[in-house]
Amino acid sequence: MSDPKFQKTLKPVKSQGSDPAFFSVWDIHAYYGESYIVQGVSFDIHEGEIVALLGRNGAGKTSTLRAIARTDDPQIHKGEIWLDHEPLHDMKSFEASRLGLALVPEDRRIIPGLTVQENLELAQIEGKKGWSIERLYELFPRLGERKNQIGVTMSGGEQQMLAVARALAKDIKLLLLDEPYEGLAPVIVHEIEKTLEDIKKLGITTIIVEQNAIAALHLADRAIIMDSGQIVFDGTAQEVLDNDELRQEYLAI
Ligand SMILES: Nc1ncnc2c1ncn2[C@@H]1O[C@H](COP(=O)(O)OP(=O)(O)O)[C@@H](O)[C@H]1O
Ligand SMILES: [Mg+2]
């Protein structure tokens, strides 16, 4: 943020003419120290859309999500991020979170020592309240059954459910899911897929990063493929499913 080239006063680039997109990333360049990783990424997302962000290991997907969520690393040296007319690029992660951005990281970050219920209650204190805990237990019955269990002692799949539920406990505008199926048995993947389908029906704008590209493409409306820190494809999920060459080159499926 200290880079003098960083222009705080720019208008949303895509707002000229018609309405700006609900969520817009414009030409972001992000670094870990000297390492230049996110190299000019731009895309728009409409409200309610589900976008799969795909690409090989090391392509820069997690770094892009972290840049959007305004975590301390990577640092954005240039570019803009707009969520519902608010400039996320000018914000710290807690401000972005307060504004309705929820990142569910790969490692899930369930709070040690707290029960399932306490993890959810804490989320509601941190942000503007979203779903009630009762409603979250309806969507995730397993969490309801385990509400007094210490969160980190649950299985990987259950912890993933808790991580997603915790995001929904706040009033969110954009959900970022980093590899929600990672390390989970196929039957659990299927269960979480069903939950994400339910969330999809509620119209929550979502970006899902997944190595399990087929599962993500079935859920998503759109697909963005990254390679070496840049976007190499932006189109419909169906186009990716239909394009063998594209899948072999960038997704190895
Ligand atoms: N904390 C970090 N410091 C330095 N380089 C990093 C850091 N995290 C990731 N990288 C590098 O950034 C590149 C993109 O990583 P990442 O965004 O995690 O990719 P993906 O999520 O697509 O697998 C990789 O080359 C990785 O080594
Ligand atoms: Mg990653």
Q: How are the elements arranged and paired?
A:
Blueprint: E1 23-32, E2 35-45, E3 50-54, H1 61-69, E4 75-83, E5 86-87, H2 93-98, E6 101-104, H3 116-126, H4 133-139, H5 141-145, H6 156-168, E7 174-178, H7 186-201, E8 205-209, H8 213-219, E9 222-227, E10 230-236, H9 237-242, H10 244-251
Parallel strand pairs: 3-8, 3-9, 6-7, 7-8
Antiparallel strand pairs: 1-2, 1-4, 4-5, 9-10
The chain binds adenosine-5'-diphosphate and magnesium ion (MG).
Written overview of the protein:
The protein has 253 residues and is of the alpha/beta class. The protein has a domain at 50-68 and 101-251: 3-Layer(aba) Sandwich (Rossmann fold). Helix content is 35%, strand content 25%. The chain has helices spanning 61-69, 93-98, 116-126, 133-139, 141-145, 156-168, 186-201, 213-219, 237-242, 244-251, and strands spanning 23-32, 35-45, 50-54, 75-83, 86-87, 101-104, 174-178, 205-209, 222-227, 230-236. It starts with 22 loop residues before the first strand and ends with a helix.
Characteristic terms for this protein:
253 residues; alpha/beta; Rossmann fold; 6-stranded mixed β-sheet; 4-stranded antiparallel β-sheet; 10 helices; 35% helix; 25% strand; disordered N terminus; binds adenosine-5'-diphosphate; binds magnesium ion
Q: Give the fraction of residues assigned to helices.
A: 25-40%
Number of strands: 10
- Report the oligomer: single chain
Report the average pLDDT across residues: 91
Distance between the ends: 38 Å
What's the alpha carbon Rg, rounded to whole Å? 18 Å
Q: What spatial order of strands do you see in the largest sheet?
A: 6-7-8-3-9-10
How are helices and strands ordered from N to C? EEEHEEHEHHHHEHEHEEHH
- How many strands, what sense, and barrel or not for the largest sheet? 6 strands, mixed
CATH architecture grouping of the domain at 50-68 and 101-251: 3-Layer(aba) Sandwich
Q: Output the CATH topology of the domain at 50-68 and 101-251.
A: Rossmann fold
Poorly predicted runs are 1-17
What would you call the structural class?
alpha/beta
| Overall geometry | globular
CATH class of the domain at 50-68 and 101-251: Alpha Beta
Number of H/I helices? 10
Provide the CATH superfamily of the domain at 50-68 and 101-251: P-loop containing nucleotide triphosphate hydrolases
Present as ligands are: adenosine-5'-diphosphate, magnesium ion
Proportion of strand residues = 25-35%
